[in-house]
Amino acid sequence: xxxxxxxxxxxxxxxxxxxxxxxxxxxxxxxxxxxxxxxxxxxxxxxxxxxxxxxxxxxxxxxxxxxxxxxxxxxxxxxxxxxxxxxxxxxxxxxxxxxxxxxxxxxxxxxxxxxxxxxxxxxxxxxxxxxxxxxxxxxxxxxxxxxxxxxxxxxxxxxxxxxxxxxxxxxxxxxxxxxxxxxxxxxxxxxxxxxxxxxxxxxxxxxxxxxxxxxxxxxxxxxxxxxxxxxxxxxxxxxxxxxxxxxxxxxxxxxxx
Amino acid sequence: xxxxxxxxxxxxxxxxxxxxxxxxxxxxxxxxxxxxxxxxxxxxxxxxxxxxxxxxxxxxxxxxxxxxxxxxxxxxxxxxxxxxxxxxxxxxxxxxxxxxxxxxxxxxxxxxxxxxxxxxxxxxxxxxxxxxxxxxxxxxxxxxxxxxxxxxxxxxxxxxxxxxxxxxxxxxxxxxxxxxxxxxxxxxxxxxxxxxxxxxxxxxxxxxxxxxxxxxxxxxxxxxxxxxxxxxxxxxxxxxxxxxxxxxxxxxxxxxxxxxxxxxxxxxxxxxxxxxxxxx
Lengths: 257, 280
What we know:
Chain A is mostly helical. Helix content of chain A is 84%, strand content 0%. In chain B, helix 3 (74-106) runs antiparallel to helix 8 (183-220). Classes of the chains: A mainly alpha, B mainly alpha. At the A-B interface, helix 1, helix 4, helix 5, helix 6 and helix 8 of A face helix 1, helix 4, helix 5, helix 8 and helix 9 of B.
């Protein structure tokens, strides 16, 4: 496919949609739907400047801390629980319950237990985002190829070397699937923790805009959240492609064969 | 690869290795029960030993009493019903829309390429970002909950259906074509069976996400339902009641997961991932 054609496919529909939006709002005075130009101006005015450091940076820092801790804890406990059979049987139903519990309901609980501060927000993110990583890691560790596992044992590969070279790589694709789910839940929880109990941060600011009927500002906040989601998903895809390059190569060979 | 692929984008699929293992020690269900009891005992002990302030975390026994009392209250079941209506209605609309659109976009390579960038752009936008908009448009009506539920679960199903349609075996497709099967017959006998496992995975994920969003919107916007009851209990300092409602929410989630898995097993009883045979 030529570059021009690819660019057309990449940008065609988005451009068409923005054009439609522009044309349909050209003569409208709708209160709810801002014009594209107006929204772009508001976006720059509201978010480029002090507010970026006051609201966006702290929120994103909490988000990053929550995600990193959720991934590290999830993989750590997942490897442990996944490798010990009785531990797995012991914890499985309890973990199923926590997986099924909609994470936002834990916000009021953690508010009570920790109080309203940054560690509460990080705890909220961890409490919801850890489950997909944990359960996928357990599942991935459990499904390690038994021939590989026995070979490793025969060669006396144990302890950390076993985790590093056998368990983690073979559970990798499963863990990646868990991390992808974890990212979107973490972002949702970041917003909710700020909407529920906070006086700063993205979630709080957007709700403030809505309550004061600052509609273009509210839309621009929605755009910011969307952009964070998109950046997160790009970072994830880029990292996953690096870390799991061997796996995607293997899939390609298998599919071709 | 068909059987393994859905797991790459979702929850764990049962592996092949587990059946061979011999069972030692007490059977799994007993250990699991012991795990639950252990969890409840720790929960009971923490406030009793004043490790955690009992005002903030009441002992498990107190919460369980309130939980059981709730089961006899009409108001509780009304709240459950309201949550389930938002959940079910939103999930149904999102699923049907995503299935139809997914089949149309997926089976046309021009549409697939043209929509790819837009879908990848819209999908990661967190649905809670729409909360302010939903409040403006619908207030505390069910509409605002539905809007969030539909937006969130739509993408789960759509992406899976697109994967599924792309997975159709070209040989099977060409064979069906050369045997003179019409478009409808090809959809029925080639496209649909290939897509169904992916679709069911998407549906299961969407069901879980839909519950999260239904509860979230009740909690934050204040639509009537379980989430709203939790918010009321919290602001009224009825801490045991709040924990009991949270417990109920988790149970609802477990039941939904269980039912979705049952439906998945039923509809895919013919498929190799469920039959448990070796996948070629």
